[in-house]
Amino acid sequence: MGHYRFLRSMRLLKTDDFSSVFNLRISVSNEWFQLLGRRNDQPGARIGLVVGKKTAKQAVARNYMKRTIRETFRLHHAQLEGLDVVVRVRQRFGRAEGAAARAALLQLFSRLPKKCRASASR
């Protein structure tokens, strides 16, 4: 049985944490999301979220998107082991598009570690 709790240690909380991921600029994207990543010195993965008001004006919509991303990360964080990831929402999605958005996010979750490993070996 896996560990599925979403702990505080699994979140990027400080501005410096976000800045270090933004500065490294290893990214993968699709129509829904842009993922920025970097290696961390910790055993687990950490996630930060960016959902701007330009993406969705209403807080209810932004909060739904953040909950969906956090839940997907919580269930699949093992494949991002050892990475700090910032997820930027590029296109608004609601309940009707939620399944497609989750599938797109999972695809990016599988691509990002390969790209981070390739850049670390340079």
UniProtKB/TrEMBL annotation:
Enzyme class: hydrolase
PROSITE patterns on file: RIBONUCLEASE_P
UniProt-listed InterPro entries: Ribosomal_Su5_D2-typ_SF (IPR020568), Ribsml_uS5_D2-typ_fold_subgr (IPR014721), RNase_P (IPR000100), RNase_P_CS (IPR020539)
Any one GO molecular-function label of the UniProt entry: ribonuclease P activity
Domain of life per record: Bacteria
GO CC annotations, alphabetized: ribonuclease P complex
Catalytic activity: Endonucleolytic cleavage of RNA, removing 5'-extranucleotides from tRNA precursor
Keywords annotated in UniProt: Endonuclease, Hydrolase, Nuclease, RNA-binding, tRNA processing
Pfam families hit by this protein: Ribonuclease_P
Coiled-coil segments on the chain, per record: none
Enzyme Commission code(s) on record: 3.1.26.5
UniProt keyword annotation of Translocase present: no
Subunit structure: Consists of a catalytic RNA component (M1 or rnpB) and a protein subunit.
Function: RNaseP catalyzes the removal of the 5'-leader sequence from pre-tRNA to produce the mature 5'-terminus. It can also cleave other RNA substrates such as 4.5S RNA. The protein component plays an auxiliary but essential role in vivo by binding to the 5'-leader sequence and broadening the substrate specificity of the ribozyme.
Similarity annotation: Belongs to the RnpA family.
Record-linked PANTHER family: RIBONUCLEASE P PROTEIN COMPONENT
Protein name: Ribonuclease P protein component
Source organism: Chitinilyticum piscinae
Source species taxonomy: Bacteria, Pseudomonadati, Pseudomonadota, Betaproteobacteria, Neisseriales
